[in-house]
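Fig. S4 source data, part A: sequence.
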Amino acid sequence: MCASHPERDAHFTCPRCGSYACVYCWHPSLQQCDTCLKRDPAAASPPVPWEGSHGSPISRYLATLRGAFCPARTAPSFARTEVAPALRFLLLSALPLSLVAGIVPHTRLLSFEGAMKVRVLGQPGFGELVLDVLRAMASQVVLDAVQLLACALPFASLVRAYAGPEKVPFAVRMLFYRAWLHPCAALGVYLLVALAPGVSATAAEGPPDAVLWAAAAFQVGAPVLFMMAMAYVSRLACGLGMGWSILIVSVAVTVAAFAAWGAGQVLVLALPAVPNAPSS
């Protein structure tokens, strides 16, 4: 029988403590039982590569990005209290992606029509074009910041309430290290719109199927990875049960979605109208 749940049959033996674990208490990606993981979650996974000392800064940066594709295995690495390294990684990963991602959807003087075609709307001067691009970049940063903050506040608050205040840095670190996923997905979709053939509204045919599948992969894959990271950190780093983890993630993601939608509506009203006359 399971050491933590005597009413359930045990199917695994933990190599660390030798206790028996059921399917609910055994974590195959970490090769540990629930009891060992709750005792010392940070020992279940190596530190975040960005915070390590092996390799160059670029290799540690790329390794940290790759960690987003292994949410279960890397979740315990967030069980540390240092938030400053995570904030630096946020500024070096999510911020540049967000700046670039804002150019295509928020510019008002440039029209991206696919197949690398860019049309200037109206007859703006060079300074107007520069200001337009800078405004577009800043707009996306604001949208992503609102979404991240709207997700972080309920997520951290619920972790504090159900796991304890000492676990809040674990949740914040995860959000900072994985914040790049959302602007990366947006950038991927916008690049498809700007570069792929057959994407413009005036095209006789729609975009190729490969473009549609790629756009769908960006739009679905990144949010799913982000939510999986939140759920696994709640479960494997903060020590919450599966049900509480799912509930906390659902609440935080719902609040973030409504906040992002509202910020988007405000942004549409705040930005100037798109000129109708193209330049010759």
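Fig. S4 source data, part B ends here. The longest strand covers residues 110-112.
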